[in-house]
Design brief:
This protein has helices at 2-17, 98-109, 126-138; strands at residues 40-46, 49-54, 64-66, 69-71. The chain is of the alpha+beta class and 141 residues long. It has one domain (40-138). The longest helix is centred in the first third of the chain and has 16 residues, at 2-17.
């Protein structure tokens, strides 16, 4: 009986204070819209792995350009049926040529992880160059 009495007292006390838990509105309060934008990466490759992801969704708006880069905000397009060619590193994309090889050599010389295509991963060596040559010789789909 004591337990039932304690439970009833607790519920009664909660009922007294429930009115003060109402949401505030009006006055000097304002809820403003904001976003948490982030970066992320699309198609970062290393070896046989590809990673794409974002920290936050960029705002939709006009395409921003600077130098040779374009940035378009909004939602990711559907990537169904997209074919990639891992050896195609430079424009014109879809065609393997001398510029792709030069770009890979630049990545390799800069110790860029994108040039790390073969085990042991984490160090650039002859096996990475050999893997790139194999990808280049395989051609683009």
């Amino acid at each position: 009986m004591t337990t039932l009495r304690t439970v009833l007292i607790v519920f009664f006390a909660l009922g007294l204070f429930a009115g003060s838990a109402r949401a505030q509105s009006g006055g000097n309060f304002e809820i403003t819209s904001f976003t948490i934008d982030g970066g992320g990466v699309v198609n970062a490759t290393g070896g046989v792995f590809t990673l794409s992801g974002t920290v936050g969704q960029p705002d939709a708006g006009p395409v921003q350009t600077g130098g040779v880069f374009d940035l378009a905000g909004g939602f990711w397009p559907t990537a169904v049926g997209v074919e990639t060619c891992p050896a195609d590193l430079a424009s014109p994309f879809g065609v393997l040529n001398f510029f792709d090889v030069v770009t890979y050599i630049g990545l390799y010389n800069a110790n860029d992880p994108a040039a790390d295509l073969a085990a042991p991963f984490g160090s650039l060596n002859f096996f990475d160059i050999s893997a790139y040559i194999g990808l280049f010789n395989a051609g683009c789909p």
